[in-house]
Amino acid sequence: MPLAPHDERHLIHRIGWLRAAVLGANDGMVSTASLIVGVAAAGTGRTEVLVAGLAGLVAGAMSMAAGEYVSVCSQADTEAADVARETDELAKAPDAELAELAAIYVARGVEPGLARQVAAQLTTKDAIGAHLRDELGISAVVSAAPVQAALVSAATFAVGAASPLLIAALAPSAQIVLWVVAASLVGLAFLGGIGAAAGGSGRWRGAARVLVWGALAMAATAIVGRLFGVVTG
């Protein structure tokens, strides 16, 4: 009697957009908060701080989108080249490719005779798909999607960057640095925990990783801003 189907939801299905989303939001918050802290620590007024933060938001979002698009396009080009190469090899040497696929299954622990049968059946159904998946590790779940990655990166960067910018606009002029640092650390901990949980990892570890690097970035820019503020003041 066949087993009843059951619902399975694996985290790997999120990897295409999750990586870009988490990276974009964290980068937006860290970079913009650090920029605001550095400019504010230099002793400039609220208007200059907000202009610098807004410029950082726009430039950062565009940079993230462009960088992610170029990076993922390179991955997509590599995948396309592998597909073309594997298609050509299947056309020119089908027996050798069948033996290669069977050897992969044998290496994974399948009995040689059964491995040959499995390879033959998969080749009959979808030869290129079998080789891409089992020989090269390429599948629809993890394949490159440049436009999606670029849009997600830009949008999440802007959302992450908007938080310290809003805090800087609402904070008392003399306490912009304190407010932005405190709010950004809380936001980074939240984002780190959410990203880790969505990826199936521990929330505290994810939050700690982001907090450490975010605190270091803001501390570094505060020191630079203070030094240059003193020099030029």
Instruction: Give the N-to-C terminal Cα separation.
Output: 82 Å
Written as H for each helix and E for each strand, in order along the chain, the element string is HHHHHHH
Give the amount of beta strand, in percent. under 5%
Mean pLDDT: 81
**Rg to the nearest angstrom?**
25 Å
Given the structure, what is the number of helices?
7
Please tally the β strands and state the result.
0
- Biggest sheet: strands, sense, closure? none
- Give the helix proportion (percent range): over 70%
How is this structure best described in words?
- With 233 residues, this protein is an all-alpha fold.
- It is built from 7 helices and no strands.
- It has helices spanning 15-41, 46-92, 94-107, 112-134, 146-170, 176-198, 203-232.
- The radius of gyration is 25 Å and the shape is elongated.
- The chain starts with 14 loop residues before the first helix and ends with a helix.
Keywords summarizing the entry:
233 residues; 0% strand
